[in-house]
Amino acid sequence: MRPAALIGFAAAALLLGALVVGYLVAIPALFSSPLLDANLARALSAPLGQRLADLLVAASVVLALATPRWIVSKAGTTIALVLTAAALTHRLLLLPHLDRLWARVDVVAARPVDLLAEAQRWSDHQQWLLVAMGVLVLALFGLATRRTV
């Protein structure tokens, strides 16, 4: 196996693992814990979300650098660059905005209502972005397994 393919597969697997295990298992597990109230779970999940976002950026940059030598198709390079842009947008724009919104909300008392609704709406945007990133990683895996004729 070529080194670029090994690096590409490792970076894509790390990215997909951070998306699935981090955002779909670890963070929701904090919120479902009976020992934590919603405000404490939110406060504890913020640093974990920051580290996961850093990991997504690093893995997507490595993936973007490895993809041109790993996948013959130009679509693979384009997907890797879009994935990198999405990870950077998530880390540098969306996550700080979400942290500022959730810091001003008391989740247990559900006050203030307008800020809670806005924070929930932006959290939904974050979830859709993470799902789109997962789909892009799966598309890269699909392009990597395709054989050239």
Automatic annotation (TrEMBL):
The keyword Transmembrane helix applies. It comes from the Bacteria. The chain crosses the membrane at residues 6-31, 52-71, 77-94, 128-145. Keywords: Membrane, Transmembrane, Transmembrane helix. This is DUF1772 domain-containing protein. It comes from Nannocystis pusilla. The lineage of its organism: Bacteria, Pseudomonadati, Myxococcota, Polyangia, Nannocystales.
